Amino acid sequence: MPDYGAFAQARAAAPIAGAIRRVDLHGAEKLVALTFDLCETSGEVAGYDGAVFDTLRAKQVPATIFAGGHWATTHAGRIGEIARDPLFELGNHTWSHANLRLADPAKLAREVLAPEAALAPARAAAAQCRRADAASPRSTDIRSAPARSTLFRFPFGACNANAMAAVNGAGMMAIQWDVSSGDPSPLMSADAIVQATLAGVRPGSIVLMHANGRGYHTGSALPRVIDALRAKGYRLVTVSELLAAGTPVVTETCYDARPGDTDRYDTWGRKPARSVSSWPTSSPMPTAAPETTGSVIARRPISTEGPPATKH
Ligand SMILES: [Zn+2]
């Protein structure tokens, strides 16, 4: 099996600038990448959705997991399990799920770099484990456990030029999505998640889901999503595998379904505290948005930013 971790490391030496939304595949094989975010702010302990990982393992589905640094510290055992499992690749989802459009340079650096230190022990243990596994005659997968993240996901689907430069400067590529399952909304039933996902997926898609317990019906929807995609002839792969199979479709800025639709989170944190039911959701039925293929340098001017958002 090719070493996609090494591929990602090599590619990250010159990260693709801009937000990667999907991949134009070079071959005829229908590939799709399921991604799961582990979001957690510094003032909470979110959760671990065991049903998601049980399903991925039972159905042997490779997946890309974007872990927050704070989540990794409050779920040290779980992050170790995820890092050790060759089905999964780990990416960086900031330290405290901050809106990086609002971060000053010091906070930006901390949010991008601190998760790497938090993930390092799990990665080191995983590398040792995988080396031992590789020596086993029963081993079928000797993919390396990369020493650091090459993939990054912006919280809220929100970025600006400074934030993108910080991520790319740290050797990471911004992996956003072209299909939002809508799972952070408690109002999205399992049926609705299945429908939204299947309606949006096309070959080369990157699908956004959550595994921190705030994909409220993700666990019940996921087996159906996987079975339906496989029935349609899709092979489920990690983001690194997807990137290796084609040309990334890159946009200058970050968004959910269309440019500008996540800018509302710039004011979201300044409003009075809300219940968990108002955790930012993504549009369940994304529509086509302008995209370009290949590398695009972000030229968006620095936005006028207000004070940092309060915790949510
Ligand atoms: Zn998140």
Provide structural commentary.
The chain has 312 residues and is α/β, with parallel strands linked by helices. The protein has a single domain, classed as Alpha-Beta Barrel (TIM Barrel). The protein has helices at residues 4-12, 50-58, 69-74, 76-84, 105-134, 161-169, 190-200, 218-231, 239-244, 265-268; strands at 19-25, 31-38, 63-67, 88-92, 151-152, 173-175, 179-180, 206-210, 235-237, 246-251, 292-293. The strands form 2 sheets. Strands 2, 3, 4, 7, 8 and 9 form a 6-stranded parallel β-sheet that branches. Strands 5-6-1-10-11 form a 5-stranded mixed β-sheet. The longest helix has 30 residues, at 105-134. Residues 272-312 have low confidence and may be disordered. Zinc ion binds at residues 37, 39, 93, 97, 155.
Task: Quickly describe the structure.
This protein is of the alpha/beta class and 312 residues long. The chain contains ten helices and eleven strands. It binds zinc ion.
Q: Label the structural class.
A: alpha/beta
Radius of gyration: 18 Å
CATH classification, class level: Alpha Beta
* Count of DSSP strands: 11
Q: Please summarize the sheet with the most strands.
A: 6 strands, parallel
Helix content: 25-40%
Low-confidence stretches: 272-312
Q: Beta-strand level of the residues, as a percent range?
A: 15-25%
Query: What is the count of structural domains?
Result: 1
| SSE ordering | HEEHEHHEHEHEEHEHEHEHE
Number of helices: 10
- Supply the CATH superfamily name: Glycoside hydrolase/deacetylase
What bound compounds does this protein have?
A: zinc ion
- Which fold name fills CATH's third level, the topology? TIM Barrel
Mean pLDDT: 83
* CATH architect. name: Alpha-Beta Barrel
Protein name: Chitooligosaccharide deacetylase
Domain NodB homology: 30-237
Family: Belongs to the polysaccharide deacetylase family.
Organism: Methyloraptor flagellatus
